[in-house]
Amino acid sequence: MSSAYILQQAAAFGPGRLVNVLRDFGIPVQLRRLYSNDEIPTDLDEIRILVVLGGPMRVTDIASTHLTFLQAELDLLKRAIAVDRPVLGIGLGAQLLAMAAGAKVYPNARPPAADAPPGTPPTPLPEFGWGPVTFPFPGGTEPIVMGLMDGAEMFHWHYDTFDLPRLPAPINPLPPGTPPPPTGNALLSSSKVCKHQAFRFKNRLFGFQYHFELTEADIDLIVAQGKEELAKVVGSDAAVKIHQDTVKNYTRYARLGDRLMKNFVQFTKTY
């Protein structure tokens, strides 16, 4: 029987509540801890669902000698994309999915003002901690995000963003007046500082920049391991603020996140 394969890239970024949701649907789960040298699956016939989790690294680390599994994941994602095998990318996993589909991944930043001096660099806009997301029309009407609503608080941990992947352009030029070809994508979710938070590509390929799958213990571990980086980017009191927000937001977050995960499983089963 084919299984859901979950690729875990860092100890702190585990599958959270996702395993229980999949097992509730009777789907066998194979968790591969790539940071511990677990093997990446190669036979697509064995993969009913492919989940690629997040991590503190970035797609620019693909060339790092101690992170060779990133390139292997990218290669596997390219093959899954070609046949539209169900994929759920979360955090770094969403960025890898976008890259595998041919989209650009780059630092999330605000361009310099029109009147800024020449050579003024963009202002980095990383997202760490809790923040609300929106579900813009028409992507917000897609089955995978049914039951979620604007203002839902999600957990963010990223520097980068991505362009939405697109289907290849037609080989031959289109006649004048012809409607533009389909992009194959839908923007599912945005935040105030990062427009491309979640997307669908083709029919069964989904990427979510934010995390909706984590347990409270997962969040505490991510914050503890990234405490120095967090203080540098957000401020010295960031860890305390995130803990307070976790206490306030977690019950609703878990309910909405479980809804999203169930939507994903049910939607991909229909194809």
Q: Overview of this structure, please?
A:
It is a single chain. The protein has helices at 18-24, 69-83, 92-100, 216-225, 227-233, 238-269, and strands at residues 3-8, 29-33, 47-52, 87-90, 105-107, 109-110, 123-124, 127-133, 152-158, 160-162, 185-189, 198-201, 205-208. The two termini are 17 Å apart. A hairpin with a 3-residue loop joins strand 12 (198-201) and strand 13. The strands form 4 sheets. Strands 2-1-3-4-13-12-11 form a 7-stranded mixed sheet, sandwiched between helices. It has one domain (3-111, 121-173, 181-269): Rossmann fold. The longest helix is centred in the C-terminal third of the chain and has 32 residues, at 238-269. It is globular. With 271 residues, it is an alpha/beta fold. It is 30% helix and 21% strand. It is built from 6 helices and 13 strands.
In short:
By secondary structure, the chain is α/β, with parallel strands linked by helices.
Main beta sheet: strand number and arrangement? 7 strands, mixed
Query: What is the overall shape?
Result: globular
Topology, number of strands: 13
Mean pLDDT: 94
Distance between the termini: 17 Å
Proportion of helical residues: 25-40%
CATH class: Alpha Beta
CATH-wise, what's the superfamily?
Answer: Class I glutamine amidotransferase (GATase) domain
Unreliable stretches covering 5 or more consecutive residues: none
Order of helices and strands: EHEEHEHEEEEEEEEEHHH
Structural class designation: alpha/beta
Compute the number of helices: 6
Number of domains: 1
Q: What would the CATH topology be?
A: Rossmann fold
- Rounded to the nearest angstrom, the radius of gyration is 19 Å
What is the beta-strand fraction? 15-25%
User: How do the strands of the widest beta sheet line up side by side?
Assistant: 2-1-3-4-13-12-11
- Report the CATH architecture: 3-Layer(aba) Sandwich
